[in-house]
Amino acid sequence: MTQQLTEKSDVYSFGVVMLELITARQPIEKGKYIICEVQLMMDKNDEEHYGLRELMDRSIQNSGTLTGFGRFLELALQCVEESAADRPTMSELVKAIETILQNDGMNTNSTSASSSATEFAASKGAPKHPYNDGLPKKEVNDSTGAFDYSGGYAVSAKIEPK
């Protein structure tokens, strides 16, 4: 809103990304803001889905138990607080996410968010983009030297010594 980039504006943006993960929706769809939609539908009395069942990504809905979902949602909403002073710092955010994962029985063995990329390598299957789910794939034959994907997913090529 202020057009000023700060650590707290980065936290706000990350909060929007967290809400995108929960809903598999873009930040603005059909003139509706994801933050407003989540805030309007949220119901803390619904201990399982927090009133967001209709808004949630289907893969989250169908995952069985949603242990830690409420804490993740609360954290996302703290990140998108209107006042920057009410938002956590990025380091507080990382610690909170690691705590959620540890409390829910996931072994992170992480001391920082940067080490979590190796955990993604253990994931099964190719990454899916929620916005393009079910849409036909475009083939790209770009020989202009475009950047290769350098994310956390392991490449399946076998490397042998010379």
UniProtKB/TrEMBL annotation:
Keyword terms of this UniProt record: ATP-binding, Cell membrane, Kinase, Membrane, Nucleotide-binding, Serine/threonine-protein kinase, Transferase, Transmembrane, Transmembrane helix
Region (Disordered), start-end ranges: 104-149
Location within or outside the cell: Cell membrane
Record PROSITE patterns: PROTEIN_KINASE_DOM
Pfam families linked to this entry: PK_Tyr_Ser-Thr (PF07714)
Enzyme class at the top of the EC tree: transferase
Bilayer-crossing regions: none
EC number: 2.7.11.1
Membrane topology: Single-pass membrane protein
Catalytic activities: L-seryl-[protein] + ATP = O-phospho-L-seryl-[protein] + ADP + H(+); L-threonyl-[protein] + ATP = O-phospho-L-threonyl-[protein] + ADP + H(+)
Compositional bias ranges of the Low complexity kind: 110-123
Principal localisation: membrane
Limits of the Protein kinase domain: 1-101
Protein name according to UniProt: non-specific serine/threonine protein kinase
